[in-house]
Amino acid sequence: MIATNIGTNELNHLTFAGMDTVDLAKEYGTPVYLMDEARIRENVRTYRKALSEAFSGRADIFYAGKACAFTELYRILTEEGAGIDVVSRGELFTARKAGYPVNKACFHGNNKTDEDLRCAVSSGVGYICVDSMDELLALEKICAEMSERQAILIRVTPGIDPHTYEAVSTGKVDSKFGNAIATGQAEEIIRKALTMRHLNLKGIHCHVGSQVFAEDVFERAADVMLRFMADMREKTGRTLEVLDLGGGYGVRYTEDDPVLSIPEKIREVAAAVKAACDELDFPVPYIYLEPGRSIVADAGMTLYTVGSVKRIPGYRSYVSVDGGMSDNPRYALYRSRYTVFSAGEVEARETERFSVVGRLCESGDILQENVPLPCDIRRGDTLAVCTTGAYNYAMASLYNRLPRPPIVMLRDGTSRVVVRRETLANVADLDV
Ligand code: LLP
Fold first, then answer.
1. DSSP labels for 317-343?
2. What is the pLDDT of residues 241-280, one digit of tens each?
3. Would you say the CB of residue 83 lies under 6 angstroms from ligand 1?
4. Which of 171, 319, 367, 382 shows a CA-CA span of 20 to 30 A to 271?
5. Cβ atoms of residues 126 and 104 within 8 Å
6. Averaged over 59-88, what is the pLDDT?
7. Interval 20-38 mean pLDDT
C-alpha cells in the first residue's frame, strides 16, 4: 500500500486508519473526505522532533494551512504546539475560532490588502512575511497609525528551480512572489525595512516550490539564503536571526513516487546550514519550515459512489462518480496522479483500465486516467481516491452548484464530522 494507514480487511474492503471505508461511505454518504487524526499528529511530531534535534531546539514548523484548513485541524495544531502559516483573513479567522494562539502564526501572501495587514497586526500574529516594497510601505504606515511594532520577515527569491510542475514553482527569479537576490531587489527591500520604525525585521523567507523530490533543493536554497544574510550583515551591520525555508517536500501519491524520510531530509538541510554558517562565520539562525502537503496529504482519503460505467468499444471505459473536479481539481489542473481503489473489492480477480471521471459538466472533469479497477465494477460501488488530504478540500469549489463534501475525522476506530456537508440551502445562501 502507498501509505501505512491504508489496508484491507477480511471482507476485501479498503480500510483507512483501521476503519472499513465501505461502512464509512454508508454511514456518512458520498462524496466524503476522510481524515486520519493520528496521521496528522504523527506528521507534525515527526517534523517538530527532527527539527528540534537537528537544530538544537532552535527550529520549528509553520504548518501551511493553504493545504487544508478547518477549525478542528487548528485545534489539533494548537494541542500539538505547532506554528502555522496563514495566507488570508479567512485562514486567520478559522485559526482564531479554534482558539489557536496566533502569536505563533506567520502571515504570507503576495498581495495582502490593507485590511489583511490591519487584521494581522491587530490579531497579534507573530510574523508578517512581507512580499514586496509596496507592502512594506503600506505595513509601516498601518503600524504607525496603530502605534504597533510588528515583527516581519522578507520574502526573497533565491533563484532556484525545484524541478516540479510550473504552477507550484515559486523560487525562480521570474515569479510573482518575493524579491529576487539576483536583481538587487532583495537587498533594496532589506535596506528599506531596516529604516522602518514600526517594523522589526527578524529574518528572511523563501519557498521554492511544492511536491519537491529533487535532491538538495532545500540545501541549495539554504546556502543561497545564508550567503545573502551574511552579505546583508556585511553591508548593513545587521545580523538577521530567522531563516524560513518554506514548504514543499513531496508526498507519495502512487507506488511510483519515492518515499521521503522527513527526518533524513531535515538532517541534510541542517548539515548544509551548518556548513554555510561555519564558512561564513555566521550564527546559525532560527529555522522554520512550512510543510503543508506533507502534514495532511496522506492523512486524507475521498470516497465516492459509482454512478455509471460506460465502455466505448475501441476507445476507452469510463467510471463516473458522484463528485469530481469540484472536490478535487488537481488532475484537471496539474495532471496529478492518485491511487484509486474499488473500496469493496480491493483485490480483484480481473481488472480493466478505466478513466475515473466526475459528474461536472465538462470533459476535463477527470479524477484519474488509466486506473485498474475490477471488471465487474458497477453503479452503487464505493470508490476511494487516496492521499487527498492536501489541496483537495482547500481547493474545492461550488462549480455546478454541487454542495461540497463533509470532512469526517477518524480516530481510534471512531469517526466524527468535523466539517458538515454543504446543503442545498447553503449553496444558495448568499444569493439575494
Ligand atoms: N509556504 C509557502 C509560502 C507556500 O507558498 C506553500 C505552498 C507552502 C509553504 C506549502 O507547501 P507544501 O509543503 O504544501 O508543498 N495547489 C497546489 C499546491 C500549491 C502550493 C502553494 N504554496 C497543488 O495542489 O499541488
1. EEEEES--TTT--HHHHH-----EEET
2. 999 999 999 999 999 999 999 999 999 999 999 999 999 9
3. no
4. 171
5. yes
6. 98
7. 98
Measured in degrees and rounded to the nearest 5, phi and psi for residue 76 equal -65, -45
Q: CA 218, 222, 224: angle at the middle one, nearest 5?
A: 115
* pLDDT tens readout for residues 145-157: 999 999 999 999 9
**Range 358-370 burial, b when 16+ CB lie within 10 A, else e:** bbbeeeebbbbee
- 82 φ/ψ angles, rounded to the nearest 5 degrees: -85, 150
For the annotated catalytic residues, the residue numbers are: 361
How confident is residue 333, by pLDDT bands cut at 50, 70 and 90? very high
> Which of 40, 293, 328 maximizes ligand 1 atoms within 8 Å of its Cβ, making it the mutation to test the pocket?
293
3-state secondary structure of 394: helix
Is the CB of residue 67 below 6 angstroms from any atom belonging to ligand 1? yes
C-alpha of residue 345 to centroid of ligand 1, in Å: 34
Average confidence score pLDDT of the chain: 97
Domains for the chain: give ranges and CATH numbers.
6-36+297-427 (2.40.37.10), 108-291 (3.20.20.10)
Q: Which helix (H) or strand (E) holds 370?
A: strand 366-374
State the pTM of this model: 0.97
CA distance 10 to 104: 45
Cβ pair 320, 310 in contact under 8 A: yes
Q: What is the mean pLDDT of residues 93-103?
A: 98
CA distance linking residue 228 with residue 178, whole number of Å: 14
Say yes or no: CB of residue 85 within 6 Å of ligand 1: yes
- Indicate whether 167 pLDDT > 80: no
Work out the angle at residue 111's Cα, subtended by the Cα atoms of residues 66 and 397, and round it to the nearest 5 degrees. 40
Residues 6+ apart with CB under 8 A from 145: none
Which numbered atom of ligand 1 lies nearest the CA of 211? Answer: 15
Distance 79 CA to ligand 1 centre (A): 23
Q: Which residue's entry shows cell 501519491?
A: 253
- State if residue 207 touches ligand 1 by the CB under 6 angstroms criterion: yes
pLDDT digits (tens, 9 = 90+) for 317-332: 999 999 999 999 999 9
Helix axes 133-145 and 185-194, enclosed angle (nearest 10): 10
